[in-house]
Amino acid sequence: MDTPKRKPNRLPNFDYSAPGAYFITICTKDKRNLFWTNVGASIARPQLTRWGEIAANAICNISKHYPAISVDRYVVMPNHIHLLLQINTDENGRPMVAPTISVVIQQLKGIITKQVGQSVWQKLFHDHIIRSEADYFKIWEYIENNPAKWEDDCFYKDFE
Hints:
alpha+beta, Alpha-Beta Plaits
């Protein structure tokens, strides 16, 4: 019996450790709302749960573990996180030694899982290679405004 083939998640033959900007989305398993409390009318100012705070702290520590990578912007949503990551060059414009984006995300998910005490993530993640300054600022703005537009988000799931 043939099993359906999954569409490849990554751009074939692309070096995901190359300098540049990357937009990453990681969803919780079954899109469960784990990172925000039920904030009702004040949804534009979400209250992170303990797990949400663990996720935010782990994101803020990415650059400590991987000096070549900066987190330019991020947001912790109820059931997913968005990251705008940058793999940097040194002061002379040479590529810095950096892990692949997949390794960074795998480690991030692992650190959060260990601190939470159980697996909370879907197996994969979505990435978008940012190819222009306009694309970069569009994604920056999307991340900035995402909490206020939660009910219109494609990952929206009402609090249970």
